[in-house]
Backbone:
């Protein structure tokens, strides 16, 4: 620090610059900034660093979900800078998602100094512990003081380590930083950091090896969800385990849900042992079969916290399986039987797919997954029916696939998709209400960093998943439409074009393929409206697919 007494403005400018310097040393690359006055020191500090990519977004709620998308795409913490008041409150939904899905975020909220609280100052709310237990760490250093400069790097490092999973599961952290006016200052010499640009503190946080357990070539069914990588799934397959994964899993056994709807198949393919890792697939049928089978359930925690709402896990082991551990080798014949059955479903679906075929929701999911793999581009899937149709009726995912499955909400899906597709090509699949719920994600689109996004919207004119639930049968049609289906009359092509994006409607499989390929070849966002049958007809289509599959497998 300089010997003369610095101004408060220069001190807080130095404080903000030190934070970002330390985070850059640790690996920070993306910062999402929302315009605001009180956050000026933070915004200027990150804007002055060429190592950082800035994404300026108008809507804080959308910005936070965009940050989730960037963190998913880069596997690194992303910083989000907002001003005080409701701007900070707007982040809460995304922080809940990041908490449950273990997405690393550095949430930086500016605040008024203590003397402006409780006196009616504008844009002032109580931001202390604003996000409660949904954040991994909360820090409130107060107004920056020069005499505390030796603590600033340690503060930044604590937040980084907590967000990136050094001290526990990855997730969001919250820094609530108070700033005084004048808000514009000049950063002085930064407090000394470690030599050669190293971060303040480095830790070896590699997980300990899994405690081996005896499989004895049993029929092993491995159920994986969000948080489990393709390499881990590959190891499980090498061990002869049957891997059933959620929509985000790569190279797992597809079509397990329709297969397990067949009582005879479920009985014949009962496992001797179930291994669980990460989150849960969306399939209720799988959950029911796991409970019916009553097989021992081992949870392995190396893929993150294991979801177990039905309390079926019998014991937990640390870490992940190793493909050189012969004690974990499963029954190869069991794996082969599942593989043959899954391939049979694929053949059945291929017999229904031709370019002139009218689109339906399962068919849209199959095209989207196929083209994501063929073009080696990431895929983002919306909640409700899209995530289920991908999990149940699409082929194995071959490219990185993401979905906001922490809290499973439809909010923020457009923005998350923009975050994933920023600076690269990608595909999004969501429903019409999901698009309208996060329409502000279209305001800034991919931002200024480029990319190509094919945003496919299955337009069934309402909340399609509710047609599969008891509400559709037990509530009057008029009340069901009013309270649950909630159809909206907006022309989605007009909506997309109003935000400056290309838009088109398609009605057949062939048209959808052409539209996606075209969108991936062009910069920016292209919204593709897939005209699919009514919500009630969609229920009938799903039932007919299951019935037709039973017939197909019986006759072949």
Residues:
């Amino acid at each position: 620090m300089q010997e003369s007494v610095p101004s408060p403005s220069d001190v807080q400018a130095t404080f903000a610059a030190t934070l970002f310097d330390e985070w850059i040393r640790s690996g920070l690359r993306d910062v999402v900034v929302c315009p605001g006055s009180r956050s000026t020191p933070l915004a200027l500090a990150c804007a002055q660093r060429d190592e950082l990519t800035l994404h300026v977004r108008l809507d804080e709620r959308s910005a936070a979900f965009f940050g989730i998308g960037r963190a998913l795409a880069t596997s690194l913490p992303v910083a989000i800078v907002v001003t005080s008041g409701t701007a900070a409150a707007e982040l809460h939904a995304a922080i809940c998602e990041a908490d449950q899905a273990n997405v690393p975020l550095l949430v930086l909220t500016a605040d008024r100094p203590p003397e402006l609280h409780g006196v009616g100052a504008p844009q002032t709310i109580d931001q202390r512990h604003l996000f409660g237990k949904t954040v991994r760490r909360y820090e409130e250093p107060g107004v920056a003081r020069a005499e505390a400069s030796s603590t600033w790097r340690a503060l930044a490092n604590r937040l980084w380590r907590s967000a990136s999973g050094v001290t526990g599961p990855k997730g969001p952290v919250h820094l609530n930083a108070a700033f005084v006016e004048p808000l514009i200052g000049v950063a002085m010499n930064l407090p000394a950091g470690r030599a050669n640009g190293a971060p303040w503190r480095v830790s070896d946080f590699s997980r300990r090896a899994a405690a081996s357990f005896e499989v004895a070539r049993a029929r092993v069914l491995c159920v994986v969800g969000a948080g489990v990588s393709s390499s881990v799934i590959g190891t499980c397959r090498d061990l002869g385990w049957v891997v059933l994964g959620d929509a985000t899993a790569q190279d797992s056994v597809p079509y397990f849900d329709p297969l397990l709807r067949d009582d005879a198949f479920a009985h014949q393919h009962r496992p001797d042992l179930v291994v669980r890792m990460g989150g849960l697939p969306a399939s209720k049928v799988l959950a029911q079969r796991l409970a019916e089978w009553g097989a021992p359930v081992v949870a392995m925690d190396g893929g993150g916290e294991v979801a177990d709402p039905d309390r079926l896990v019998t014991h937990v082991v640390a870490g992940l399986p190793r493909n050189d551990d012969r004690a974990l080798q499963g029954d190869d014949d069991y794996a082969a039987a599942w593989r043959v059955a899954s391939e049979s479903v694929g053949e059945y679906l291929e017999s229904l797919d031709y370019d002139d075929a009218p689109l339906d929701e399962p068919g849209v999911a199959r095209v989207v997954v196929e083209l994501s793999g063929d073009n080696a581009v990431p895929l983002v899937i919306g909640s409700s029916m899209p995530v289920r149709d991908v999990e149940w009726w699409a082929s194995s995912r071959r490219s990185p696939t993401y979905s906001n499955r922490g809290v499973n909400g439809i909010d923020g899906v457009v923005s998350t998709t923009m975050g994933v597709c920023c600076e690269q090509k990608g595909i999004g699949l969501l429903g019409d209400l999901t698009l309208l719920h996060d329409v502000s994600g279209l305001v800034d689109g991919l931002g200024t960093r480029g990319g190509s996004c094919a945003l496919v919207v299955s337009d069934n004119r309402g909340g399609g998943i509710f047609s599969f639930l008891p509400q559709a049968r037990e509530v009057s049609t008029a009340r069901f439409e009013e309270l649950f289906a909630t159809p909206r009359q907006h022309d989605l092509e007009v909506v997309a074009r109003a935000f400056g994006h290309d838009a088109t409607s398609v009605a057949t499989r062939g048209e959808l393929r052409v539209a996606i390929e075209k969108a991936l070849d062009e910069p920016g966002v292209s919204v593709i409206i897939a005209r699919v049958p009514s919500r009630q007809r969609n229920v009938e289509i799903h039932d007919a697919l299951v019935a037709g599959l039973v017939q197909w497998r019986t006759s072949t």
In short: The mean pLDDT is 93. The radius of gyration is 25 Å. Residues 359 and 449 are 33 Å apart (CA to CA).
